[in-house]
Design goal:
Strand order of the largest sheet: 1-7-6-5-4-3-2
Oligomer: single chain
Order of helices and strands: HEHHEEEEEEH
Distance between the termini: 75 Å
Radius of gyration: 20 Å
Helix content: 25-40%
Strand content: 35-45%
Number of helices: 4
Shape: elongated
Structural class: alpha+beta
Largest sheet: 7 strands, antiparallel
Length: 177
């Protein structure tokens, strides 16, 4: 019986050490980005990313709660524009503020998640002309404290799906005549 307990103790120590090493190796910073080419001129695509209402018209996160409570304040399409939401457990609660706009090039949003857990992030939309088309890169940056940074191992598929859905919606919207 002593051998069994020694084995189990050794096993748990190894698992604990592997978890600690994994947390350290993953680091706290998380960056995700996804790109798409849209067959529309950059000026047309810009109209769909230059304000919080424009972004929310194609954002997949708006589908998380059809009864979400939303407010917009500040001048639409300007630095300082604020969007707040409060929804079900999937949507949570938070606010987004436009902190940088470079016409036909870049929109940067500061994101403050309040529920289900408090954290901060940045959302960045970059536009790059590709002849008569536009390459759009949607990026997300945040810091994840230990041990929650282990979530990085599991969120890739969800990010791929959500950002893919959003960019495909932006593409369809921007390519409409």
């Amino acid at each position: 019986m002593k051998k069994f307990f020694k084995f189990m103790l050794g096993f748990f120590v190894v698992v604990f050490v592997v978890i600690i090493i994994t947390m350290i190796a993953l680091g706290k910073e998380y960056h995700y980005e996804k790109s798409i080419t849209i067959n529309a001129p950059i000026e047309k695509v810009w109209q769909n990313v230059n304000s919080m209402k424009a972004i929310n018209s194609w954002s997949p996160f708006m589908k998380l709660d059809p009864n979400m409570k939303e407010t917009y304040s500040g001048a639409s399409g300007t630095v300082g524009e604020l969007y707040t939401w409060s929804g079900n457990n999937k949507a949570g609660q938070g606010e987004e503020r436009i902190i940088q706009l470079v016409p036909n090039e870049k929109a940067v949003v500061d994101i403050h998640f309040i529920k289900p857990f408090e954290s901060n992030a940045s959302g960045i939309i970059l536009l790059k002309p590709q002849g008569t088309s536009t390459e759009v890169t949607w990026a997300f940056d945040t810091t994840m404290e230990y041990p929650s940074n282990l979530m990085k191992l599991f969120i890739q598929k969800g990010m791929d799906d959500a950002f893919g859905d959003g960019l495909n919606s932006l593409k369809a919207m921007s390519e409409r005549p």
